[in-house]
């Protein structure tokens, strides 16, 4: 974990949009006697482009305007504002797990969000912590989906629990839970089929799968993670809203944060969805996974 933290730092230092543009703009104008209306607007525009959304951009500008007249430096002002939004974000997985039961992670989200890749990364992550891990293939529609998960299981060096094709995902998960119990696995990561957040049938199927788990495992030992592609923008909010009607989401895993990462999406997701950001995926290899650290993140943006 400490090594991972260092990597998180290194990756954060590459965060572009918010860091460079906003810094340059603020450095250029802050020590002047007055900042023009136009310059404030440009700054607001830059903030919006960093994916934090119009609401927060406006709040930050107002805060900066107030601070300017108090002759405070913009860094501490921006840090306080951004940190106040995200400081309560609790990224811990299973903070109150009951050791008598296995811990179950369910990954859900639309096709291509990065669920299967994250399943593999998480398998390694938990294995490195000494857990006995299984990957559970609950995408029973496509044979290729199980094969893809099998490759990740090999990479991570963990077991995979497959089901015969055509089984319904709830039944597949039920069988997997029995096997996990028998073998004494401490962690199971369930990779589900990608589902459009507007497809009611697929979502109620996910609801059934979830109920099967809650019948066997206490909620303290279940993480229902919504996997969101960091570039999904506004669509991410619609996905979360709809999926949350069927399943209690316990946290968000943001994937593809390496590709044109703007960072701002983090504040928006946390603020507007009221969900903790737990994990961040920053690439296609098994190591590219971090537990989200709010303070480190905000520091990296501001300083
Ligand atoms: N750059 C990058 N690519 C990723 C990341 N996570 C997943 N991908 C890629 O996104 C594509 C879809 O991933 P997959 O795990 O199959 O998505 P799923 O349909 O949700 O299971 C694959 O090409 C992955 O290699 C990430 O954090 N960064
Ligand atoms: Mg998949």
Automatic annotation (TrEMBL):
Which InterPro entries does the record associate with it?
A: AAA+_ATPase, P-loop_NTPase, Signal_recog_particl_SRP54_hlx, SR_rcpt_FtsY, SRP/SRP_N, SRP54_GTPase_dom, SRP54_N_sf
Q: Where is the signal peptide?
A: none
Indicate where this protein is primarily found.
membrane
Q: Ranges for the SRP54-type proteins GTP-binding domain?
A: 276-289
* Catalytic activity field: GTP + H2O = GDP + phosphate + H(+)
What the entry lists under SUPFAM superfamilies is as follows: Domain of the SRP/SRP receptor G-proteins, P-loop containing nucleoside triphosphate hydrolases
What are the alphabetically sorted keywords of the record? Cell membrane, Cytoplasm, GTP-binding, Hydrolase, Membrane, Nucleotide-binding, Receptor
- Note whether Cell membrane occurs among the keywords: yes
The annotated topology with respect to the bilayer is: Peripheral membrane protein
- Report the NCBIfam families cross-referenced here: ftsY
The record's comment on protein family reads: Belongs to the GTP-binding SRP family.
Protein name as catalogued:
Signal recognition particle-docking protein FtsY
Instruction: Name the source organism.
Output: Thermatribacter velox
